[in-house]
Amino acid sequence: MNTDCRKPLSLLFLVLILMITAAAQDTQRFETFAGYSFTHDSSFVEPGTNYSGWDTSTTVFLKRWLGITSDFSGHYGGQTNPIFCTAGGCFFGHTSVNSYTYLFGPHFKYQRSRYSPFVQTLFGVHHPDETFRVVNTPSCNQSCGTFSVLTNAPYTKFAMALGGGLDIAIGHGFSIRPVQAEYLLQREPSLDRNLLPITVNNNVFRYSTGITFHFGQKLGQSK
After folding, report:
1. Global pTM value
2. Contact 213, 31 (CB under 8 A)
3. Domain holding 205: CATH number?
4. Residues in the chain, pLDDT under 50
5. What is the DSSP string of 26-57?
6. Is the distance from CB of 199 to CB of 209 less than 8 angstroms?
7. In whole angstroms, what is the distance from residue 209 CA to residue 115 CA?
8. Rounded to 5 degrees, what are φ and ψ at 157?
9. Would you say residue 146 lies in a domain?
10. How many structural domains does the chain have?
């Protein structure tokens, strides 16, 4: 390439980088995140299983560094485990779970460049719906038949998420979020030794990744 061409192209590239960086330094009033989400949960299936799903959130910024976030997510998974065996074969139980969380709370963002780390503490509820199905194995002959028992036990309990992540500006109005990692506390119903209903804490890890869209008024540099 001609040397005379390289200089203006290099200058143009530098200007573009500076423009992206400068644009990223102004927090916009609203941002919306959407992407893939993963959790590891042991409340329904022992010793625990992985669930895949989605996570979406919207943040309204009151200041350049402070916003209020509403977060909604859904995760889906299941596992098959042996229950008992007979002369005709072993029977297995398959547990399927759909779990949804609805969370709200403060969102703190540090934005000095195109890299914007953040932390947030969210409170709300989670709403799981469990389906349990008993099935027999192929080794069982036809006289054993096939049957299933469906048990749906949806409920709504307290939930809390504590964690953070990183947004990286890659263009005007949007960023990629390579990581959002959170500790998710969920209250679950249980029974004590006297068969009295109680609630217990369920500790869940949640990881999300996706795209963040920024729009609205720019709040500018913090003073």
Report:
1. 0.71
2. yes
3. 2.40.160.20
4. 1-3, 5, 8-9, 11-24, 141-146, 193-194, 222-223
5. S-EEEEEEEEEEEEEE-SSSSS-EEEEEEEEE
6. no
7. 15
8. -135, 165
9. no
10. 1
